[in-house]
Design brief:
With 320 residues, the protein is α+β, with helices and mostly antiparallel strands. It has 7 helices and 11 strands.
């Protein structure tokens, strides 16, 4: 039922967009026939806005991964290079904080380690909001900065590296599916307190989850309640097991991180001798590093999402 509603909504949206496109094209043709430049200009502006809207809808469709809608943990670590790299790490922390604030997300600082003279050695923040992880997940990697160092008395150009790693916050509302064929339910007589409270019926319940070997029991007076309690305990145990597997997977990815240095960067931020931020995966560029460092990251994120899905086969349009 839900799938049909989503399909009908998608079809309705496509038809509405097609109708709007036809209307704008028709207005341009009418304006050109009548020599009315104002009508043409207004219709062309509307087409640009429609193009932008379609692009956003396309990106939203890419945010369909299992954990894309989750909150995101962002870890930032300074590379080798002392104060210069630690200052760069603090600039990245500010950049992602500004991006989050501009997009209506909430930022919570989980931990921060100050640098020896300036900047930070590392920090971890939690960015809360819908699709936070989906947007940020392609930001994981090494980020390279080239600039005239404010900490160099001879004003020489320095290259610094810092790493950014993004993980999804694990959703507590995980649906644990327990198949009847995977469990064995046994009843047994529990030991009571003695006297009139001795349990004289086989009311206690033991459930064994055979694929994992997890065993849970409940021994209240009601067999029905014991079964419910044991199933609840089993779901909790299986949930905990699933979370541990996910965290182990995240840890494996963490342990396999490349060195923070040459040859491993995903994006370069050049402040001198010229002004340029370039993503080395997608080729997207921005000639205003200040705006990027102030949180203007959407174009880079959109291109990276498309690149991730297409495997780099699709050309990414870069519009300043």
């Amino acid at each position: 039922m839900r799938e049909r509603q989503l399909l009908e909504k998608s079809i309705s949206t496509i038809k509405a967009l097609q109708s709007e496109l036809d209307d704008h094209v028709g207005m341009i043709e009418l304006g050109e026939e009548e020599g009315d430049n104002d009508i043409v200009a207004e219709a062309e502006k509307a087409l640009e806005e429609l193009h932008s809207d379609i692009g956003k809808r396309q990106v939203d469709a890419l945010l369909s991964g299992e954990t894309d809608r989750n909150n995101a943990f962002v870890e930032i670590h300074a590379g080798a290079g002392g104060t210069e790299s630690q200052d760069w790490a603090s600039m990245l922390l500010r950049m992602y904080t500004r991006w989050a604030e501009k997009n209506g997300y909430k930022v919570e600082v989980q931990s921060i380690s100050d640098g020896e003279e300036a900047g930070i050695k590392g920090a971890s923040i939690l960015i809360r909001g819908d699709n936070a992880y989906g947007w940020l997940k392609t930001e994981s990697g090494v980020h390279r900065l080239v600039r005239i160092s404010p900490y160099d008395s001879q004003a020489r150009r320095h290259t610094s590296f810092s790493s950014v790693w993004v993980y999804p916050e694990i959703d507590d509302n995980v649906d644990i599916d327990i198949q009847d064929k995977d469990i064995r339910i046994d009843t047994f007589r529990s030991s009571g307190a003695g006297g009139q409270h001795v349990n004289t019926t086989d009311s206690a319940v033991r459930i064994t989850h055979m694929p994992t070997g997890i065993v849970v029991t409940s021994s209240e007076k009601s067999q029905h309640q014991n079964r419910a309690n044991a199933m609840k305990a089993l779901r909790a145990r299986l949930y905990d097991l699933e979370m541990k597997k996910r965290m182990e997977s995240i840890q494996e990815a963490h342990d396999s991180k490349s060195d923070i240095g040459w040859g491993h960067q995903i994006r370069s931020y050049v402040l001198q001798p010229y002004q340029l931020v370039k993503d080395l995966r997608t080729g997207v560029e921005n000639t205003s590093p200040d705006s990027v460092l102030d949180g203007d990251l959407d174009r880079f994120m959109e291109a990276s999402l498309i690149h991730q899905v297409t495997g780099g086969d699709s050309e990414v349009e870069d519009i300043d």
